[in-house]
Amino acid sequence: MGPWRCLLLLPLLAVPLRAQQQQFMEYVERRLTLLEERISQWHDQSSRYSTELRDFKNQVLGMLEAAEKEREAMRTEAESAAVRVDRLEREVDYLETQNPAPPCVEVDETLMEKQVATAKQRKNEKYTKLTDCSDTIASVRAMKILKRFGSTSGLWTKDAAGKSEKIYVFDGTANDTVYVFPRMREFTLFSATRKAARIKLPYPWVGTGHLVYDGHLYYIRQQGLSFQVIKFNLANKTVVDSSVFPAEEQIPVFGLSPFTYIEVAADEEGLWAIYATKEDEKNICLAKLDPGSLDIEQMWDTPCPRENAEGAFVVCGALHVVYNTRLPSRSRVQCVFDVSGTLAPEDASLVYFPKRYGSHSSMKYSPRERQVYAWDDGYQIIYRMEMKKKMEV
Q1: Is residue 45 domain-resident?
Q2: 107: pLDDT confidence band, cut at 50, 70 and 90?
Q3: CA distances from 212 to 44, 64, 166, 170, 234 (A)
């Protein structure tokens, strides 16, 4: 083929090549347009899914808030139910103690009459000691002022027999709520009663002569002209026993503490009751208590006068009466009565307590710690005692 023929074929070949290029460009444009449409669809769907996810999240948060409110409401209802159940249990305990079975009442009255008769027969007899304790107070070794808490009159103490470190506080001279602090440290540091546990008693107490002994609270209840010793279990919050104190026409046992008619005390020998009656209104009386049955085992008339007495406690079977003056001065143990007769009153030491604020409304001796827990014009004080053998005094 000659050169001139090739020149003639070039125009013919150029026409199909341009057509192919045009078709290819159109194809590419269609594919790009389709891709743009798909990208736009994906963007729309992504936005819709984000909106739905956000709405779902808000819905879940609302449901969680509603569930939390329902949980809080259920917790409040449960606490309210627990309070009502506790109140119902106390009311049942109260009704049981108020309405015991009639045969038991008759038996208890008969036993009490026999008990009083036996105690009167043994009145002022020689006491048979239960322990070999022969110590007596020589002096006040140290004094520690813990804090000022509550009313001007009250009582604070530990368990005189058990190993518990709990502090029991009776604020005032007539109430039905006992404050309980877990240890001395908490009682010293806490300034508000909201930090303390509360024990609601089935009957209100009177005076400041109560005692915590071996896991039980022995407290005084007044019914008209008579007085009851209530034995209350601190573990299960129930009344274990109660007994009308077998003394007629009782009067305040301490001349300077007119709110206390019976002082329940503990020492190495067990439980004692310090009281006074119109029969011998000038002097203080003493009785030995059975901690289990609340029976009176023996009774004594003491030579210790009521006048100017502000408190008393028992150490190794010897009653120690603390005196002051109408205008508060320095408290002192001025009368000692030993039921075993081994310590004559004139041989006892004259023990002085450091003068502080006023006069003591309560003084509780702890035989396991050999110290006295005192309440002086709203101040809580610990007196550590120096002890000696009775024969050395």
Answers
A1: yes
A2: very low
A3: 79, 50, 10, 11, 9
